[in-house]
Every structure is written in C-alpha cells, then in structure tokens.
Automatic annotation (TrEMBL):
Top-level taxon: Eukaryota
Region (Disordered): 51-71
Residue ranges constituting the Serpin domain according to the UniProt record: 84-228
Name by which UniProt lists this protein: Serpin domain-containing protein
Gene3D superfamilies: Antithrombin, subunit I, domain 2
Keyword flag Transferase: no
Record InterPro entries: Serpin_dom (IPR023796), Serpin_fam (IPR000215), Serpin_sf (IPR036186), Serpin_sf_1 (IPR042178)
PANTHER family reported in the protein's UniProt record: ANGIOTENSINOGEN, SERINE PROTEASE INHIBITOR, SERPIN
Keyword terms of this UniProt record: Signal
Signal peptide: 1-16
Annotated organism of origin: Cirrhinus mrigala
Any matching Pfam family: Serpin
Length: 229
C-alpha cells in the first residue's frame, strides 16, 4: 500500500511541476505583437527572379545549415512531432472516407511542411486559417488583429526532425521541386521556405501555355535531378 501511494505521489508531483507552453509561443518571433488584419493593405511581396527550367539542373543556392541557432530545439521537435501526427491522422481519416476501396499513403511530415511553406506566401487572413489547421494559432481578444508564427522556424524544426545523424549511403534526403509559370511572380519568403524544409530545392519557371510540352519538360527535369528515382 505504501509503495502504491508513493508512486502516485511522485506522478502527481511530476505532473504539477510541468509547465504548459502553447505551441504558438515556441514558433513565434521575439517581441510578437497583434497585427491588424481588417482593411489590410496589400503590400507587394518581395519577389525573386526565377531560373528558366532549361537553364540549370543544379539545386538552388542557399546559405549555411538550416538548423543552426535554433533555440529550444528538443522541446520544439517534440511539440511539432505531435502536431504533425495529429494532422496526418485527420488527413488519413478524410482520405479514407473518400477512398474506401484503395490504399492511402501519405507523409505527415511532408504534408505539414508543404502547408507551412504555402503559409509563407499567404495573405494575413488566409494565414490565420493555415495556423488553425496546423494547431499553431493563438487566439486574439481583438477581432481586427491576429498573431502570426515564424514559418521559417517551423520548417527548420521539421528539417531537424527528418535529418539523419547516420551519413550512410541509405540516408534519406528531402528534395523539393516547385514549377511556376514563367510570367508569374514568386515571393522571396516562399522561396526561402522551400530551402528551409529541404536538403536541396529546385524552383524553376516553366511555360505552361503549352501543357503537353511542359509536362514532358517537368518530368524529364525531375528525373535528372533525382538521379532517376
């Protein structure tokens, strides 16, 4: 009886000493403030010049390690792993309802990363919906303003989760391909997001006005840059 009571007591003490940290607080910028969303002024995105598909098969240039200088990495990876698994389960359940007679295969980590990358190029109102879906939204007491996460920190943490310490031949690598119509503008923030979440990324401009030719070009490009995998 004494042993049982002691175990329960230790468990209760451990639970009481645990401090809950809202996921938003782990992935927000320092000195965060509520940003006005009503009557939002549509400020132009800082855009980048896109490399034409046929010009290069080399990965996009990038700087340094994407996981360096990340604070609270252990806590962030634990929280993010739980959130991505929760999202993956919801997606699996939704897909299973529409594909009752087929197999469903998805990667919660890649799905989560793709949504956060899109978040980086979204307007404030759309970004709120992304945060709610991902489980990273912090409700505001004011209807006309909202709090926003640092999407780059989320993506760098995801990359830390998928990174392998073992540098063997069988190491898994994350590659990202993004193909944009050649007359479209691409957000610099979005481009950086594709790099945060990958080992190598390829963002290219394609002429989609000729759909069949574009399909062949894109497929050939992916085959070349993925070592025919």
């Amino acid at each position: 009886m004494f042993l049982t009571l002691l175990m329960v007591s230790c468990f209760a003490m451990g639970t009481a000493n645990r401090v809950y940290v809202h996921p938003f607080n782990l992935f927000s910028s320092e000195n965060i403030s509520c940003e006005v969303i009503q009557n939002e002024e549509h400020k132009p995105f800082e855009t980048v010049h896109l490399t034409p598909l046929q010009d290069s098969t080399e990965p996009d240039p990038r700087s340094g390690s994407t996981t360096e200088n990340l604070k609270n990495l252990t806590q962030r990876t634990a929280v993010l792993a739980e959130l991505q698994n929760s999202l993956g389960l919801r997606m699996y359940q939704a897909l299973s309802r529409t594909q009752k007679h087929g197999n469903t295969l998805l990667s919660p980590l890649n799905a989560f990363g793709a949504l956060v990358t899109l978040y980086l190029g979204a307007s404030k109102k759309t970004a709120i919906s992304y945060q709610q879906l991902l489980g990273l939204n912090l409700e505001s007491n004011q209807a006309d303003c909202a709090y926003f996460i640092d999407g780059h920190t989320v993506l760098r943490t995801l990359q830390a989760i998928s990174a392998h310490v073992d540098k063997s031949r069988n190491e898994l690598r994350t590659l990202v391909w993004t193909f944009i119509n050649n007359d479209a503008d691409l957000s610099k923030d979005f481009l950086r997001g594709t790099q945060d979440f990958s080992d190598d990324s390829f963002v290219r401009a394609v002429d989609f006005s000729k759909a069949k030719e574009a399909e062949v070009q894109v497929n050939n490009f992916i085959q070349k840059t993925s070592d025919s995998k």
